[in-house]
Design the sequence.
């Protein structure tokens, strides 16, 4: 079996060159251990960040843009006020800007540009994660609310 590349050593060289975030923190968030080669490491990390960012976006989109095809998202979305949705839409726009920047880097790719993207997105990472977590908590509560409301409203 082939030996797994030492990503941390390679990353630490790039970290020092570009002032990147700590490898342990990135690995904790993005699970970098499943990368299979260290060539184009910054590109691979940027793409992993984008994948998780898109996961965050899809959660927000379920609240912001519920469809008739998904009664589940329509139900959950009804538990968010218009002010909350407006707030989430501004966060979603910022997330989508990062998404499109990443797509552009797939066309205009360099280590320096990937490093800049990683640093810029990393500055927003915890707030994005906290907002997404808050949305998920509200979504979960919507189902608990429904159960209680339904149980109290039905007496046989």
Sequence:
């Amino acid at each position: 079996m082939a030996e797994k590349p030492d990503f941390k050593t390679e990353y630490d060289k790039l970290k020092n060159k570009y002032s990147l975030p700590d490898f342990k923190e990135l690995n904790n968030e993005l699970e970098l251990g499943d990368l299979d080669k260290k060539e184009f490491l910054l590109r691979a990390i940027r793409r992993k960040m984008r994948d998780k960012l898109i996961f965050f976006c899809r959660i927000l989109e379920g609240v912001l843009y519920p469809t008739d095809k998904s009664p589940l998202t329509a139900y959950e979305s009804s538990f968010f006020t218009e002010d909350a949705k407006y707030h989430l839409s501004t966060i979603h726009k910022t997330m989508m800007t990062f998404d499109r920047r990443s797509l552009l880097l797939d066309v205009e790719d360099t280590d320096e540009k990937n490093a800049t993207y990683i640093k810029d997105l990393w500055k927003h990472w915890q707030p994005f994660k906290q907002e997404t977590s808050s949305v998920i908590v509200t979504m979960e509560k919507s189902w608990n609310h429904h159960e209680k409301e339904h149980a109290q409203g039905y007496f046989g």
About this structure: Residues 111-153 form the longest helix (43 residues). The radius of gyration is 20 Å. Residues 30 and 48 are 6 Å apart (CA to CA).
